[in-house]
Amino acid sequence: MDVLTDNFSLYGKGFLGTVELTVYASLLALALGFLMASFRVAPVGSLRALGTVWVTVLRNTPLTLLFFAVLLGLPRFGLVLPFQLFAVIALGCYTSAFICEALRSGINTVPLGQGEAARSLGMTFGQTLGAVVLPQAFRTVIPPIGSTLIALAKNSAIAGAFSVTELLGTYKTLNELGYSIIWTFLWIAVGYLIITLTISALFNVLEKHWGVAR
């Protein structure tokens, strides 16, 4: 218990760092995921190709390699940002590919007649997707999106290796101070458990209100 009480501020700073990474990267992942899912089902071939390339590349690229590409590659092109923002970009883009595929699977569950009826009323593709298809698709993909964001929270631990303040990185300081590595990691695990259980609880509420009854 001394590990936590003696270093509560350190744990707190790491915990808040992980929460910030998770929240900001989740918002980016959801926005890009919705956009790429729209591209994947668009009637324009170039947009479908862009969505396919985005998903294929990011889903098959190791997250650590993506961190190296973003944190070390972008500054070479003159884009210099705080490391935390680079970490948000890497996490958000990587996770957006999985959000996209979850949404696309949900879109495929919506009967084709829904879209045809909307188009017969004169609605554009964007209107049909935004007002008819996506609201129905979202109801079916709440659980997989929740699972994906939980994975994002755990993946944020990689950011600690790139000088970003987050929960797992606290073990380095505590190890140097001579604290037991077992208790150090135990309290780190508790921190991640709090974050993931909070996300799970949030999506359970969403599923109860808007999910499809099974």
Strand composition percent? under 5%
Give the number of helices. Answer: 9
In angstroms, what separates the terminal alpha carbons? 44 Å
Q: Helices and strands, in N-to-C order?
A: HHHHHHHHH
* Classification by helices and strands: mainly alpha
Largest sheet: none
Arithmetic mean pLDDT: 85
**Which segments are poorly predicted (pLDDT under 50) over 5 or more consecutive residues?**
none
**Global morphology:** elongated
Rg? 20 Å
* Proportion of residues in helical segments: over 70%
Number of strands: 0
Secondary structure topology:
Blueprint: H1 2-6, H2 8-40, H3 45-59, H4 63-73, H5 83-109, H6 112-120, H7 125-155, H8 170-176, H9 181-210
Helix pairs in contact: 2-3, 2-5, 2-7, 3-5, 4-5, 5-7, 6-7, 7-9, 8-9
Summarize the structure.
The chain is mostly helical and 214 residues long. The chain has 9 helices and no strands.
Polypeptide structure, described:
There is one protein chain. The chain is mostly helical and 214 residues long. α2 crosses α5, α3 (45-59) packs across α5 (83-109) and α5 (83-109) crosses α7. The model has no long low-confidence stretch (mean pLDDT 85). The protein has helices spanning 2-6, 8-40, 45-59, 63-73, 83-109, 112-120, 125-155, 170-176, 181-210. Helix content is 79%, strand content 0%. It is elongated, with a radius of gyration of 20 Å.
Name the features.
214 residues; 79% helix; mainly alpha; 9 helices
